[in-house]
Write a structure and sequence with these properties.
This protein has 194 residues and is mainly α. Helices cover 82% and strands 0% of the residues. It has 10 helices and no strands. α7 packs parallel to α9 and α8 runs antiparallel to α9.
Length: 194
């Protein structure tokens, strides 16, 4: 059905773009983001429209354009709130926090973290809890909080998020000189990505 295809098109192409970005297939990702944007223009606002800007932002980031990436993720966050689908905050929050910190906007990163934590507390799922802990660990620069995020995500069914949390924890552990723990978490991240 054409109507259904126009509504799910933005979400499907956004997800395919994100998969391509994580695989390093940036030309394929660009094709999917462009298709998602065109499909969104045809169907108009819907609950998952924030994924289109999110995918565009991650693609900008993959090209080293952190300013435009942050702008796109802010647009995604705003759309999520305006559409009343704040259950998406735990999915989007860690990427937005990471980019706000990269652009030296610590206050904004803290605000996003607090919003993600509130939603995660209401949801009570391992994936939402892990996302909130990822945000808090990144803002605080605390490997112990990120280790708690990894632990929460081990019981969730989202290997990518577990891999990202493992990698983030490994980086902070490495900076703290805890190299054997860092190596183990890097190995776990690679296993999750594979």
């Amino acid at each position: 059905d054409i109507a259904i295809a126009s509504v799910v098109g933005p979400l499907v192409h956004s997800k395919l773009a994100m998969i391509s970005i994580h695989r390093g297939e940036l030309e394929v990702a660009e094709t999917h983001v462009t298709k998602a944007e065109k499909a969104l223009a045809r169907c108009g606002p819907h609950p998952r429209m924030s994924w289109v800007a999110w995918a565009r932002g991650l693609l900008y980031e993959a090209h080293g354009l952190t300013g435009p990436a942050l702008d796109a993720l802010e647009q995604s966050w705003t759309a999520t709130g305006e559409l009343g689908v704040i259950a998406e905050y735990p999915r989007l929050g860690p990427d937005l926090v990471r980019l706000t910190l990269a652009e030296n906007r610590a206050a904004r990163a803290s605000a996003v973290t607090e919003a993600t934590e509130r939603v995660a507390a209401r949801m009570g799922t391992p994936s939402a809890t892990g996302a909130a802990l990822r945000c808090r660990g990144l803002v605080a620069g605390d490997p112990e909080v990120l280790l708690r995020a990894v632990e929460a995500l081990r019981s969730a069914s989202r290997p990518l998020e577990r891999g990202l949390a493992s990698e983030e924890a490994a980086v902070l552990l490495g900076r703290a000189g805890r190299m054997s723990e860092a190596r183990a978490l890097f190995d776990e991240a690679v296993g999750a990505y594979e």
